[in-house]
Amino acid sequence: MKGSCAKPVLFTCAIFLILIVAQENRVAALEPCDPMKLSPCLDTITKGSEPSELCCTKVKEQQHCVCQYLKNPNFKSFLNSPNAKKIATDCHCPYPKC
């Protein structure tokens, strides 16, 4: 009787362990916050040109950092500009509500 109960418990524990490891890998895979990585978007922010594919890639990589960047007065004016919002729209990255 004990053996029949142990298998589902072990299976559940194994699934739980896999989910924990997968979540840790997902968090570790986030790109570190570095506003200089958004430099491919400089032309779009300053001139309003179309964002390049590289710009969109970098915006998506750094999207989890935007609220942090908005706290910095040096970046806030750029990120609140209409051109930055254009990048968010054109790159299909929702503008965060911090």
TrEMBL record:
Residues 35-98 form the Bifunctional inhibitor/plant lipid transfer protein/seed storage helical domain. It comes from the Eukaryota. GO terms for molecular function: lipid binding. The keyword Signal applies. SUPFAM superfamilies: Bifunctional inhibitor/lipid-transfer protein/seed storage 2S albumin. Keywords: Lipid-binding, Signal, Transport. One of its GO terms (biological process) is lipid transport. Residues 1-29 form the signal peptide. This is Protease inhibitor/seed storage/lipid transfer protein family protein. It comes from Arabidopsis lyrata subsp. lyrata.
